[in-house]
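Q: Structure tokens for this one, please.
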Amino acid sequence: MSAGAGAGTSTGTGATRRRALTRALPVTPAVVLLALFLAGPIAYCAYIAFTDLQLTGQATSSFVGFDNFRTAFKDKAFLNAVWLTLVFTVISSLIGQNTLGLTLAALMQRASKPVRTLVGGIVITAWVLPEVVAGFLLYAFFRREGTLNAILDWLHLPSQNWLFTLPILAVSFANVWRGTAFSMLVYSAALNEIPKEITEAAEVDGAGGWRRMWHITLPMIRRSIGTNLMLNTLQTLSVFGLIWVMTRGGPGNRSQTLPLFMYEQAFQKSMIGYGTAVALLLLVVGSLFSVVYMRLLRTEV
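A: Here is the predicted structure, written as tokens:
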């Protein structure tokens, strides 16, 4: 009796393992690719961040521990890049793209089909443009002899060299212009999922537009807001080409965010180890934002 029971248990365990292997087989290629092209490079970069590796003038590299990180937190240029990265992210992502995307999505809910098609086409065109092309367009818009100053002169308003006087605001507004379409599409899909009976009942009860938005719409699309904020924040933290084309981090370092500072240290000053340490810190910042947003997404409405 015991032998039979043992054989049955062994057979059941073997069948369970075979089912697990069968289920895991389709995702094996994806896991291998992630290990090769994502986990592997991240692990190698993590190692380089603890060395003094340089592009030129050095035959070998040595392990320096946390020296690169200590250097970074004592470097005023790094701290300035951290501050500008936070300003750029808050203005262009958390406030600009998120708010404008939600506003456009809400307005387009009540607009006619031709208006929705026209506005959606214009906004999405800015989004699908290559980052470098968008950078050149916005450079032409904000430069001293650009479109914005031409409009201000026509209106008899004071003009200025926006890329010199307010560079971080100029690149922030450029990122808003380019990236708002994603937020608009996310919120349009979320608003379409809200049952019309709920909003109609609130309207019959006398709730105005702002009260419906605050007490009904926003709570019901809370998860979409969290998802949009997370994706927008991670994308904004890594913006490089747009700022590089418009200002190259200047004048001085007044629009130098962390990706540009990392590029300068690693490839212009040839300090690969130090630049990779900065990149690792940027990865940690993005991970912290992700953890915060994921905790918010776990909260059920």
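A few notes: The two ends are 54 Å apart (CA to CA). The CA atoms of residues 223 and 297 lie 6 Å apart.
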